Amino acid sequence: MTTAHHAPGGSRPGGRTARTREAVLTAVFKELGRGGFAALTMEKVAQRSGIHVATLYRRWRCIEGLVCELLTDLSSDVPLPDTGTLPGDLRALARSISAFYGDARMRRLIEAVVSAAARDPQAATVLRSFFGERMVLAGRMVQRAVVRGELSADTDPEQVVSALGAPFYYRILIARRPVDQDLAESTAIAVWAAARAGAYASKGNSSNNSGNSKTN
Amino acid sequence: MTTAHHAPGGSRPGGRTARTREAVLTAVFKELGRGGFAALTMEKVAQRSGIHVATLYRRWRCIEGLVCELLTDLSSDVPLPDTGTLPGDLRALARSISAFYGDARMRRLIEAVVSAAARDPQAATVLRSFFGERMVLAGRMVQRAVVRGELSADTDPEQVVSALGAPFYYRILIARRPVDQDLAESTAIAVWAAARAGAYASKGNSSNNSGNSKTN
């Protein structure tokens, strides 16, 4: 599942498979922009892309799969920065996320993906593995910061980058207001201050687990 | 819309309307626990609650409305703390949120609400106004902290309490892993450190707006 997606831009550029994929993902994006997830069907995607609906079903199984692949494709437009300092990297990444979701179609897309995951376990798996991979990649900026001595060695990279992303998804999915540059700035400052204060210290080794405070 | 919901526990306790409401919300909760949002229908809620489906449609219009009302009802179980210090309040609230969403049914419920909002503008309005109200109420802990001198006067309460909630919704909806006590502890520490560092300073007055950095 984790390697089921094609590289952004399509494998074998110019090949027929790549062209089909591009036409289909473009159609999904346009249809999402027009009617949102509620109105999205395989039939409409087939009509708009000119690809047979049978081909769509064979390759993507369901509309959820298509929407998740589109997310993967578009998110490669959010670059992972390397500015030389962690505050700089956090700020650059927060600005990229903010710019990405500044487009209402992208907000509709993430809503569609989360809705898909709520209904389809396979979509949920795709979503989890997609964000898991992104977190590992983005986490490298934290590892570099540790090497540079900006953060203590027990900082958990995944906690840091999750904390950077969380406010944007909260804003979009829960508060349901547009993201803006103010959110990017305040989030970058917040995560840096929290990381310096040790809020994201790794607990994964569980060597100092008190053993009785876990609730679920 | 903002005042359309009944008080938790039902107005006129013991009245017929309150009993109907309780039976229906209990049925929605049980059905969500069994089959998730995908399998939830007005007909199933009617069957399980013993309330006529026509009554359900008349009062709640659609399944989305019912699910949103259930969220409002259950969330009143998350108390707003007043421990005497902001770090204490943040920790207590984070623990309450963590305990609330430690129950898988609650995670399914918030998923259902977000899915509903993606498809139904009215559900989106309910969700936005519900969380807006919660944020205002929870923001009082920040106002008390400002009065006590723990934070500077320009701290924006809504930004602080949004930052406290965000990591839980990110964990549930995006990372798709269970919430736990570690997340509560690290979030409370992070928000306190960030607030002290001025990350949540109010920009609402726009008196020192540079005027050219706004993108959307």
From TrEMBL, chains A, B:
One of its GO terms (molecular function) is transcription cis-regulatory region binding. The keyword Transcription regulation applies. PROSITE patterns: HTH_TETR_2. This is TetR/AcrR family transcriptional regulator. It comes from Streptomyces inhibens. It comes from the Bacteria. Keywords: DNA-binding, Transcription, Transcription regulation. SUPFAM superfamilies: Homeodomain-like (SSF46689), Tetracyclin repressor-like, C-terminal domain (SSF48498). Residues 18-78 form the HTH tetR-type domain. Gene3D superfamilies: Homeodomain-like, Tetracycline Repressor, domain 2. The keyword DNA-binding applies. Residues 41-60 bind DNA.
